[in-house]
Amino acid sequence: MPSGTFLILVGPEYEDLEVWYPKLRVEEAGYATVLAGMGEPTYRGKHGYPCAVDGHVRDFQASALAGVLAPGGWAPDKLRRDRDVLRLVRDVDAAGKLVATICHGPWILISAGIVRGRQITSTVGIRDDVVNAGGIWTDAPVVVDGNVVSARVPADLPAFGAAIVAALSAAVPRPHVRDATRPLAAARV
Length: 189
Hints:
By secondary structure, the protein is α/β, with parallel strands linked by helices. Helix content is 30%, strand content 21%. The chain has helices at residues 16-28, 75-79, 83-94, 106-112, 127-132, 157-170; strands spanning 5-9, 32-37, 42-44, 50-52, 55-56, 67-70, 98-102, 119-120, 136-137, 142-145, 148-151.
């Protein structure tokens, strides 16, 4: 049976489905999940669903996690300004563990400095942000590039959930080293 803890970042006006659907899929696969925020005990989603968090992001270490999810909504615009969030995302990535993201979530990966040279998808609204950060934006329901799994929008959640579970199940953490021969910024539409 799989084991490990998967952390989901939560902030004000998170995209409700992009937190709860992956949470349930990961738990169904046998992993524990924790919801971590920036200090408030609860957050309300864009559609009004409340989310009580299990702790502050600074209380979690990459070494204790199987992976992390940066969901969308408006929360990433706040989360990407928090140094503890960025440290955790960088540390999980550096350890070669799963970094999953959807919709506006790649804003967090951009601010953490882990997008350059990687193939990523997102909502089309932040395509330019991904490209300007050196990512290779691709319009596909799910994109897997090493330990990073990304998806566009809530309609892609079934494929995204399956990709997260597959990545966790197959995970053998490998420290991330950027391939300097890969192109840095090219948009594919």
